[in-house]
Fold these 4 entries.
Entry 1:
Amino acid sequence: MKGILLAGGSGTRLRPLTGALSKHVLPVYDKPMIYYPLSVLMLAGIRDILLITNPDDTEVFQSILGDGRRLGLRLEYAEQPEPKGIAEALVIGADFTGDDQVALVLGDNMFHGPRFTKLLDDSVRDLNGCALFGYRVRDPRQYAVGEIDESGRLLTLEEKPVRPRSDLAVTGLYMYDADVAGIAKNLTPSARGELEITDVNRAYLAQGRAHLTELGRGFAWLDMGTHESLLQAGQYVHLLEQRQGVRIACLEEVALNRGFIGTAQCRRLGEQMPGTAYGTYVCEVAERYTAAPAA
């Protein structure tokens, strides 16, 4: 499976913060926003990742992440000249993904919860068509809303319904088989001229090949695209990290745990950030991993 991380757009909901800076590099407590969705793809075991950004921001992301080699990744870049819908990312990334399955994650989404790695591994292993991830929300009228049966098979899918059939919002993480690029290319643009991701998901729904996994109680899903939600995300990360002594979306730790890098490389990455709590944590992760008894 290959990954696409969509970090385009102009971040209008976050102005004036984003007047001269991509929202995806804004700090969410102790790390850039882009770390959070990137860690999701890495947790799913994905090493080949295409980062899609607008032309003005490509160099910024390259300066932060490079080609991904230091984390055991193969990171490529593509540009989205203007935002024309989430599904356009699948068209832009078609040559990159080729005949592989693909996971698409939005650059302003944070996911955190128990057994998340296993959930992702299971979703990749069992993928047959389209795998979506749902989260129960107070006001589903603001989201794409899915209705599922007991097995998680998607029954209905509505975009911002006036009278929602459920309170299960579709999050910004999507997994597809190799048919998805062809489906996206054949979409009819919306009245706004955009390729809608809900239309892609409805195509799989019509084929009976759409599944939605609920992210249950104890799980956190945050869209960090507004001032309020950005603040909430930072507070959430701060609280969890301070109380539990772990770091959410620490790319170096994820890379080590997934076997993308070894302990020596993890330690070197920590040592490259001397005098910082983050760098110290990365070094401690490497030391703990080295000291842990073999399974």
Entry 2:
Amino acid sequence: MLKAPIGILGGTFDPIHIGHLRPAIEAQAALGLAEMRLIPNHIPPHRASPFCSSEQRLAMVALAAAENPGFVVDEREIRRDKASYTIDTLIELRQALPDTPLCFLMGMDSLLSLPGWHRWRELLDHAHLVVSLRPGWQPDYPAEVAELLARQQTQDPQDLHRHRHGHIWLSDNLPIELSATRLRALLAAGQDPRYLLPVSVADYIAQHRLYQPTP
């Protein structure tokens, strides 16, 4: 018998903010997820090195998780000494949790760029994909993504409970137009980040003087 599904949300989290957390909270409630695992990345394979150290980003993620019931921190990627690819993490999680459906959260921008991901065709062999969809927005899917949706998309959340992997569910979530890049610029300008990230994370950033302009 399968256990209740869990959510998986990865990222550099530099810093973690409501654009990460609010879609995860909504997915947790809509899908009845037993927990939401936040997995900060140590060495991102497709972007520049993060501004903050791995330990600082891990600390901020831990503070954010503590404010949200059912959220936990998974350190497997932060402890790797090489680039972390999503497929490798999902394979590890599947081996550790053979009877638990895994729901990997991503934004619509990530779904649209999915054919550029490392071993992207194998992702659904290990997890479901839960995609944050902007309400009222009709994305122009690449042909390969459109074909994947035609085969694997479901509108029944219970499919993510009945099967370990293999489905794509589009989440009609509250749109939040906030990126870590924009937030870092705001912080560097000395502006108040209130309501854009958890209070504990904002306090940590202020205490450690993170994202300050270079003298």
Entry 3:
Amino acid sequence: MASVDLRLLRYFLAVAEESHLTKAAARLGIRQPPLSQQIRVLEQELGVTLFHRLPRGMELTESGRALLDDARNIVTLVDQAVEGVRRVSQGEAGRLTVGFTGSAAFHPFVPSVIRRFREAAPNVRLVLEESSTGELMEAVGAGRVDVAFIRGPYGLGPGVVVETVLEEPMLAAFPADHPAVKGRSRKRIALSELAEESLILYRRHSGPGLYDAIIAACGAAGFSPRVAQEAPRMLSTLSLVAAGLGVSLVPASLRRVNIEGVVYVNLAQPAELRAPLNLIWRDESLSGAARKLIDEARRQREESLA
């Protein structure tokens, strides 16, 4: 049976279900003589007679009836396999692992893209993984994560593609009892005013791109920053700010994090300091689901620009 052409089984099923060569040929979109010939080829391959040839139609023999259910099951399984592969290829099924940094998750862009992807591909098993920028870059390069939202690409491995989906301004985060903000509503502050402050930064190992951008911006503002603490996660910097250990610079979307004891102040313009949000993936192993999520991110970026 393993050597039987699947096409012959489809011909057999059509004739068995129509009980008539002419009707089966019309259903299959072929002429009757070739169909009759193909049924005989199948019978020769199996070494049995599948149909009684009657004056007004075709009737299954005992051997034909024995083949009928198995043939249906075989054709159905093959069709399901082909459809499953097609759905995975088109991003309608399968599994997708999406990584994101803690700070990226607080920008409404990221949950919106994930929500719209889920609506467009409800049968894809979606796995979300939060980690640092450095860890996500390594995971994408190794194939453990399909796509990831990170803050700054730095030292990406070969074959890893990066695309910026948005940029946002940075804010200064002060302890609520800091003299610069205590008892007054401070709308804006120049970066140079932080020259004497103890800065708390997201550690360079975890996010070298953003760390280096902050150091460079401070240098352009005329001072070398005093980095007092480096936190393993960007959200951790805000906890240290609330504890009064210093001032931090964070993406504007983290204003949504209402941590008691932290006051956010806009940086005066013009400011060189902006926080990118990037999407990375490994191009050579991009799945259909990953392509669908990337397309959704691009579509949402275009909508926001419009």
Entry 4:
Amino acid sequence: MVNIVIGGVEGGATHTTVILFDSRGSILSKAKGPGTNHFLLGMKECRRRIAELVNEAKREAGLPDDVPLAALGLALSGCEQEETNQELVRGFLETFPCLSERYAIGSDTDGSVACISNKGGITCIAGTGSNTILINPDGSKVQCGGWGHILGDAGSAYGMALEAVKCYFEDNDQFKKAPYSTDVIWRTIQEHFGVTSHLDLLPHFYTNFKKDHIAGLSKKLSVCAGEGDELCKHIFKTAGRDLARCIAVVIAKASDELINREHGLQVLCVGSVWLSWDLLKEGFIPIIEEQTDVRQLSLVKLTTTMAVGAAYMAADRLDIQLPRDYNQNYEEFYRFVRK
């Protein structure tokens, strides 16, 4: 087999991972860096960051910067539209001609599905932002969410952080009473943003808006929920309900081949929010019971980086052989069986 090198890039709003494979499917190197969502950064900065990380991975693998990869798969948040995707790729070819000979590009959900199957599946991403997508074996897609922090992001870390802050504002204004005491949430908000007054929060959401910093509040809320704060528990329950609704929407369009797999329909759950499954499941499970007809559904998580799926995606789309063992890339953490 010709000794070629294929790369994969996992790019989200908060972090980016690059991985390089040789023609035997062995990992040559990895590199990690900051987020690469072109809607947040602009395409020019997005390309620069990716090129810098790919070249870092090349050097770690003992490859010169001026020898292009055979292929590079890009699985990036914000890459749902083919027109802008190709614009991003054209910029790589023009500005960084030695980076890679060919490209395959898709959303982060495309890359995550590719991690566990080349026959399609469902991915529900709940990290800084959120997105749920179904890819059927025939290539048809159905998406629910993924519209960013203004139009979407239900069930995401940002969504929960925003809900917590809004809940405090509305309760403090006596516009809408919170279902539980806001004392713990307000202390947590003050600590996270370094503020003393709710007026001090406004620059964080307007003048100096940083989505990933706001989303980081949800990790502290999960600690409070685990310690028993009712309002924090309520926010996570609501997030679980929202994520289940997104999954239920795409399940309705899933092919029989996916639904009738040996262990039922498989949903790949990606992102830091899923680490709080114990807090999400109270809202999640009733929605699956009520709004779907599936007999079995398994929730699985990756045991590797989504960049692996990006490289697989590139190999499949560009007709390059790349050996792989899907079973090593994921593990099940919950199985729903209808009574």
